[in-house]
From TrEMBL:
Top-level taxon of origin: Bacteria
InterPro entries per record: Acyl_CoA_acyltransferase, GNAT_dom, Rv0428c-like_C
PANTHER family with a match to the protein in the record: L-2,4-DIAMINOBUTYRIC ACID ACETYLTRANSFERASE, N-ACETYLTRANSFERASE
Domain N-acetyltransferase: 193-325
One Pfam family per UniProt: Rv0428c_C
PROSITE patterns in UniProt: GNAT
Protein name: GNAT family N-acetyltransferase
Higher taxonomy: Bacteria, Bacillati, Actinomycetota, Actinomycetes, Micromonosporales
Length: 325
């Protein structure tokens, strides 16, 4: 049970909120423990302070503090993410990956410099530039930080710029499935939507992705579907698609990857994105995954706040580097 030594730490609390048919109903909360007395505990959560009577607490435990990941941990996660968003054209440059998908999305059309390229760094980057030029593509390099700091320094010297920072965030999967990120949804398309998981995306699902990402070539369909364990979340209200998401299990079964989490404008601010994340999290847990990851632009503060409620914290960041021309 919690004690005063836990005050100031991040904890997850499972509380009893009622009884149905003789069985307790539970709700989970995640936040910083700011006060603990004989009768109550108080959490600072993403929704504000939450005061919980101690006799309602079923169990509570401290969430381990985040540690700076090792180089091996960054490489493991980057390779799991690559497997979850797999480009149809790919080659090895020593330990580096060269990836192309007819220009569809930066992630699938960039070099991933993890490991040793088996040649001096300037020569490796010269090879990257030639490889993409031969395919009529702008060379891009994804630089996980701080792992790829030397690569970034060489690109700086060549005058390359960077796109906005991307946060690679992770969470223990039990936190994702247990989280209660929003209060009951109000009436509206998002609140009344039903969520279905399928092994293939529906045409309307693909249509939304095509609109958001400037088309949907054959290479894009490969990126989305060429994963052994994948589920596509479809949220429907009155027969119309109002929300969507994609979950993959990669990295030797450890990692649930969350991508393409999208809610259409008419259904936003009703908790639907959280319901989609939770549905995919439950599928990932059933598939044997133990941890979840996602990638979100640092400037997308609304999405970062949503994922924080599910226990996601930043594992590392990366920059997509772009040549001066």
């Amino acid at each position: 049970m919690l004690g005063q030594q836990d005050v100031g730490h991040r904890i997850v609390v499972r509380r009893i909120v009622g009884i149905r048919e003789g069985r307790p109903l539970f709700s989970d909360a995640l936040g910083e423990l700011v006060e603990l007395d004989e009768t109550h505990l108080t959490l600072s959560t993403a929704h504000g302070p939450l005061r919980v009577p101690r006799d309602e607490v079923h169990r509570a435990k401290r969430v381990p503090p985040a540690r700076r990941p090792t180089a091996a941990a960054v490489i493991e996660l980057e390779l799991a993410a690559d497997e979850a968003w797999s480009a149809p054209t790919r080659e090895r440059l020593g330990g580096w990956l060269l990836r192309a998908a007819d220009g569809w999305t930066g992630r699938a059309n960039s070099a991933l410099p993890v490991g040793d390229p088996d040649r001096p760094l300037p020569a490796a980057l010269d090879t990257v530039e030639r490889w993409y030029a031969e395919r009529g593509l702008t060379p891009l390099v994804n630089t996980p930080l701080p792992l790829a700091t030397p690569v970034g320094a060489e690109l700086d010297a060549r005058g390359w710029s960077g796109r906005p920072p991307v946060l690679v965030q992770t969470a223990p999967l039990p936190l994702v499935t247990a989280a209660s990120p929003t209060p009951p949804a109000p009436r509206g398309p998002g609140g009344s939507a039903s969520i279905r998981l399928a092994t293939a995306p529906a045409p309307e699902w693909l249509a939304v992705v095509g609109d958001r990402k400037a088309g949907l070539p054959d290479a894009a369909r490969h990126v989305l579907t060429a994963v052994e364990q994948v589920r596509f979340a479809h949220a429907y209200a009155d027969g119309e698609l109002v929300g969507m998401g994609r979950g993959t299990v990669t990295g030797q079964g450890r990692w649930l990857g969350l991508t393409v989490i999208e809610v259409l404008p008419a259904a936003r601010r009703q908790g639907l994105a959280g319901r989609i994340v939770r549905a995919l999290g439950q599928w990932g847990a059933e598939a044997g995954a133990t941890d979840a990851f996602l990638q979100v632009e640092q400037r997308n503060t609304a999405a970062v706040a949503l994922y924080r409620r599910f226990g996601f914290t930043t594992h590392h960041t990366y920059l997509t580097r772009v040549p001066p021309h």
